[in-house]
Every structure is written in structure tokens, then in C-alpha cells.
Write a structure and sequence with these properties.
With about 180 residues, this protein is mainly α. It is about 75% helix and about 0% strand. The longest helix is centred in the last third of the chain and has 45 residues, at about 130-175. The mean pLDDT is about 80.
Length: about 180
């Protein structure tokens, strides 16, 4: 295996490792809203759906790479699409960026969290709102890991473009160069 293959596998494994906690933490929120028969807010749902799809994509391209060669242009374009989708998820969850997780008791995000925020502490009888600092920390960690994944997917996008350029250059040199 060449160095490019090793780097691709390393980045994909890193992406999987950083996507699993996002899916787990945001899945806990989605489960809590479903248990309380409430709609999940968009700022949680968008990043959750994008993270699930990105995790599946990273896993299946990792397996596909280990099994056989695949089309670099297609993989690069899908990675670029996930960069854009993750940016959209981070923008939706941007309200948590300025939240103080050691004293998380006010603001739009706090009220919109339903059973995890104000309504959970206001006597709704759920155990989800007992520790709102945990809620804030989980949202902030998901937001930060999503930013890390934006960078990781961009790196794999650029690496596929570089690999494609190298292959094209070698083909050009083979055809047109009398070396």
C-alpha cells in the first residue's frame, strides 16, 4: 500500500472516530424528544442527519477502498458535498457557541430544548432536564466535532483531487513526453 492509501485510510478512520460521538450524543437528544412526543428542533436534527449520512459514507468508502479501487472524482465530490452539509449543520447549531455550559439557564437554545432545557426543569416530570449543563456540554461537543469533521472531509476532498492530478500528469507525461 502506498503512502497515499495509508493517509486515506488514516483520515477515514479519524472521520469515523469523530463522527460516532456526534451521532451518539445527538441521537440521545432525538430519542428524548421522541419519548416526550415532541418535534426535534432543526438545529439538532440537521446536524444529526448529516452526521449519520457522513458516518455511513465514511464507513462504506473505507470498506470499498479496502476491497477495490473506486472513482476518485465521485468520492471527492461527495466529500465536498459533506463539507457543505456539515457547514449547514454547524450554522444551524451556532447558538450553542456562545453558551456558558457551567451556568446554562437562559437564552434561545435553552428554551428551544424542550424536555432538556427550561420545560424539563419546570416540572414536566422528565429526567432529561435534570442536568442542563450536561445538555449544553453535549451540544457544544457535537458542534466542535462537526467543525473538526468539516476540516477532515475537506482534507480528503483535496487529497483525492491531488491523487487525480498525479494520475492525469503521469498519463500526460507517458503520452506526450519522449522520456
Amino acid at each position: 500500500m502506498a503512502i497515499s492509501g495509508f493517509l486515506f485510510l488514516s483520515w477515514r478512520i479519524f472521520e469515523i472516530i469523530t463522527l460516532v460521538p456526534i451521532v451518539g450524543m445527538l441521537g440521545w437528544f432525538v430519542n428524548g424528544f421522541v419519548d416526550n412526543n415532541q418535534l426535534t428542533p432543526n438545529f439538532i436534527l440537521v446536524l444529526f442527519i448529516v452526521s449519520v449520512l457522513a458516518l455511513a459514507w465514511a464507513f462504506f468508502t473505507l470498506i470499498s477502498y479496502l476491497r477495490a479501487r473506486h472513482d476518485a472524482i465521485f468520492v471527492a465530490l461527495v466529500d465536498l458535498a459533506f463539507v457543505g452539509a456539515l457547514i449547514g449543520g454547524v450554522v444551524e447549531l451556532r447558538g450553542i457557541a456562545s453558551a456558558n455550559c457551567s451556568n446554562f439557564t437562559s437564552g434561545d437554545v435553552y428554551v428551544n430544548l424542550g424536555p432538556f432545557g427550561y420545560y424539563g426543569r419546570d416540572g414536566s416530570g422528565t429526567s432529561f432536564g435534570v442536568n442542563v449543563n450536561k445538555t449544553c456540554a453535549m451540544l457544544k461537543a457535537s458542534w466542535a466535532l462537526a467543525i473538526i469533521n468539516i476540516i477532515a472531509f475537506f482534507v480528503t476532498f483535496v487529497s483525492f483531487l491531488i491523487a487525480l492530478f498525479v494520475v492525469a500528469w503521469r498519463l500526460y507525461a507517458k503520452i506526450f513526453c519522449s522520456c
